[in-house]
Amino acid sequence: MFLNKRIEVYFQPIISIKDKKIFAVEALVRGFDKNNSVITPNILFSEAKEKNIVDKLDNYIRTKAIEKFKIYYEQNNNLLLFLNFESSVIEKSKNQDFNLQFLKEVETLNINKNNIVLEIKEDTICDINALNIFCQKYKNLGFIIAIDDFGTGYSSFDRLAIIKPDIVKIDRSLISNIQNNYINTSILKSIVDISNKIGALTLAEGVETKEEILLCMKTHIDIYQGFYFEKPIENLYKICENKLFGKINKIGIEYKNVIKKHIKTKQSILKKMQHLTKDAVKLISQEQEFCFEKLQLVLKENSNIEAIYLIDFTSGNQINDTLIANIHNRFYQASKHNDNHNLKEYYYMTKESKTKEFLSQKYISKATGNMCRTYSKVININENQVILCFDILTNLV
C-alpha cells in the first residue's frame, strides 16, 4: 500500500511492425482505492506532491515495475522496459551524487542495463544542464535514453542535438488523425529526419487507427505504441498473441499495398508527363538550335505546363531564360540564362538515370509560387546533349 492506495504496474506493449514482434513494454501505474475504483496517475502524483513524497512514489513505481519485468525478461532477454521519470528527480540529481533506487534493483535482479529505457519528458525540465548530466550519466552506465512526448509543449530540436537520445517518442497530439493533417505530417517528417541524423529510433505514441499507422510507416517511424495494438495490461501472458500478430500482419500487408499503389501512381504520372511533353520534346529534338517562338506556342497550348527551360548536360548551367506562362507575384523570379542547376535533383538525377529522365516530388516553384513537379529529359540539339525541363502544375500530377 502507498498513500493508502493499492498501487499496480501495468505494461503496454511497444510494437516493431517490420520485425513482427513486441519490441518493448512501458510500465504504467494504476491506483485503486478501497472500493477497487481506478485512480489515475495524475491524481496519485498530485496527492504525492501535496505530501512532498513525489520522489518516493516515483521510485516505488519503478522498483515495482522492475520486479515485475524480471519475470518476462527471464523468458525473453531481448525485451526492453520503458521506465518514466519525474522531472523533479532529474533536476535534483544534478546537485546530488546518488544512484537512484532503481539502479540497485536492476543490478540485484541481474537485468542487463541495455534492456532498460529511461523515459524523460524533456519539455518539463527547465534546467537543460541537469537534463544533460542525467542523460550522460545513465547512458555511460549502459541504460537507453528516450525522450517522451516530443512535439508538444516546449520540446525543441536543439535539445535533441544536446541530449542525443536513443529513442524519440512522438506525442499523440501529432499522430492523431495525421493522415488528414498535412502540417503535422511535415512536422513528423522533420522529427524523423533529425532523429535519424542523431542515430535515434522514432516511436509513434498513442496510435489508434490503421490510417495513422500507415502514414507513420510512410514517414519511416520505427516502432509503435497504442490502443490499436494493445491497451495497458496487468499480465502480459493474457495478451492474445494470435490477435496481436494478426493485426501486425494485416498492417504489414496493407503497407505493402500502399507502396505498390504509390509506385503505380508515380508510373502513371510519369506516363502523363511523357504524353504531355511528347510534342515539345519532338519539336525541340528536330531543331538545329533552340527555338523560343515554337516553345512559347507549346506553353499557350498546354495550360498545365507553366515553365520550360534547357540545362547544359555537362556544366549544369541554364542555356536560356526560362520560358514561363504567367508570374502573378513579384516575390518569385524565374531562373535565367547561365543560372547553375548543379545541385538540383532534376539535373543530377536525370544525368544518372538509366532512362535519362526524371520526375521530381511536388515542390513550390520559385518562379511562380505554384505547387509543381519538374519532368526532365536528356535530348540532343545539334548533336549536343542538353536536359530539357518542364515545370508542370500539380493539378494534373
Describe, in plain words, how this protein is organized in 3D.
- The chain is of the alpha/beta class.
- The protein folds into two domains: 6-230, EAL domain (TIM Barrel, Alpha-Beta Barrel), CATH 3.20.20; 265-393, 2-Layer Sandwich (Beta-Lactamase), CATH 3.30.450.20.
- Helix content is 41%, strand content 22%.
- The protein has twelve helices and 15 strands.
- The chain has helices at 41-50, 54-75, 87-93, 101-108, 128-141, 157-163, 172-175, 182-197, 210-218, 241-286, 292-301, 345-352, and strands at residues 6-16, 21-32, 38-39, 80-85, 116-120, 144-150, 167-170, 201-204, 223-224, 305-312, 323-324, 357-359, 363-364, 371-381, 384-393.
- The strands form two sheets. Strands 1, 2, 3, 4, 5, 6, 7, 8 and 9 form a nine-stranded mixed β-sheet that branches.
- Helix 3 packs across helix 5 (128-141) and helix 9 (210-218) packs across helix 10.
- The termini are far apart.
- The model has no long low-confidence stretch (mean pLDDT 86).
CATH superfamily of the largest domain: EAL domain
CATH fold category name of the largest domain: TIM Barrel
The fraction of residues assigned to DSSP E strands is: 15-25%
Overall mean confidence score, pLDDT = 86
Tell me the helix content: 40-55%
C-alpha geometry: elongated
Q: Got a strand count? A: 15
Question: How far apart lie the N and C ends?
Answer: 63 Å
